Amino acid sequence: MTLPSDHQLTQVGAAIAGPQSKVLLIACGAIAREVLAVAQTAGWKHLTLQCLPAILHNEPDKITPAVEKILRENSDDFDHIYVLYADCGTGGKLFDLCKEFGVEMLKGPHCYSFFEGNAAFEERTKDTFTAFYLTDFLVRQFDAFVVRPLGLDRHPELRDMYFGNYTKLVYQAQAPDPELDALAQRHAEFLGLAYERIETGYGDLAKEMTAWIGKKR
After folding, report:
1. Does residue 172 lie in a domain region?
2. What percent of the chain has pLDDT over 90?
3. Are 195 and 151 contained in the same domain?
4. Does 143 lie in the same domain as 59?
5. Residue 31 is part of a domain; what is its CATH number?
6. Residue 128's pLDDT is what?
7. R_g of the chain computed on alpha carbons
8. Tell me: the pLDDT tens digits for 160-174?
9. 156 with 185, same domain?
10. pTM of the complete model
11. 174-200 pLDDT tens trace
């Protein structure tokens, strides 16, 4: 299986399986690469993956309506549908929508939590309130999702206004990649933050996908 580019993932998503698929995954484009990797490792070929643009995280109020549109368009065509979003800033609205449609979604507040493992992340954040987190996707897309939206390319003096209360950048690595590690360190330097790297793997994402999908082959 060839993984699509980040641009393709964030814009239109990708298909895992053919027209006979009966399992639909509705996912955030920011985790599409990881979803595909989990599916490939497990050998699942009966899935269809539809991704929403990752940039919706800049306007989380749009996530729930976008997911609802896909659910309404596809509910009659699939035996099982899973929503690969955590709450992601929707204020519980996505949870309520999934409950209404009788579909499951990822547990946790956001991808930083479920990649590390929700229990481990909760324990860490009891003592760490000043960490800025990046995943593999955000390391690659740092300019598009951090620098330009915050205007730091045009007004670098805003950096300390946005990040002055942070003390470190924590890179949650889903897969070992020295180039991404070096790039993440440069991002930390750009923000004036100390650097920490944690190799999380796919965390609760893989566990929940396996629990949902592994028995529906």
Report:
1. yes
2. 82
3. yes
4. no
5. 3.40.50
6. 76
7. 18
8. 999 999 999 999 999
9. yes
10. 0.87
11. 999 999 999 999 999 999 999 999 999
Q: Looking at the 3D structure of the chain, how many domains does it have?
A: 2
Report pLDDT for 129: 82
Give the list of residues 6+ apart from residue 66 with CB closer than 8 angstroms, or none: 52, 56
Query: Do 86 and 173 lie in a common domain?
Result: no
Q: How far is it, in rounded angstroms, from Cα 97 to Cα 104?
A: 10
| Same domain? 89 vs 30 | yes
Three-class DSSP category at 196: strand
**Which residues form the domain of 26?**
6-111+202-213
Q: For residues 32 and 16, what is the distance between their CA atoms, to the nearest angstrom?
A: 11
Identity at 45, one-letter amino acid code: K
Over range 69-84, report the average pLDDT.
95
Residues 101 and 174 in one domain: no
Helix (H) or strand (E) holding 134: strand 131-134
Angle, alpha carbons 183-137-187 (nearest 5°): 30
User: Concatenated DSSP letters for 12-72?
Assistant: T----S-TT--EEEEEEGGGHHHHHHHHHHHT--SEEEEEE-GGGGGSGGGHHHHHHHHHH
Whether residue 124 is found in the same domain as residue 191: yes
Q: Which two three-digit tokens encode residue 200?
A: 């999380």
Tokens linked to 87:
């709450």
